[in-house]
Amino acid sequence: MEQAVCTGGCIMHNMKLKGATTVLNKERVFLGLTMKELLIFIQRNPYAFPDRTIQAYKVYNQGVA
Length: 65
Description:
Blueprint (H helix, E strand, L loop, with lengths): L2 E3 L5 E3 L3 H15 L3 H10 L6 H14 L1
Antiparallel strand pairs: 1-2
Helix pairs in contact: 1-3
């Protein structure tokens, strides 16, 4: 997985669609939700999830749309 350094000094990973789907599926199973329910939950309550899940959500929406 490639890494890109952002301006704040943090390290961001360039996540691809497969990795994003894996992250979202793990979160979905953990919460006991369907994928549609999870995506709605993330959209309505983004602060309830870790940054990695939010990044996966963004990648997934770009890849699916």
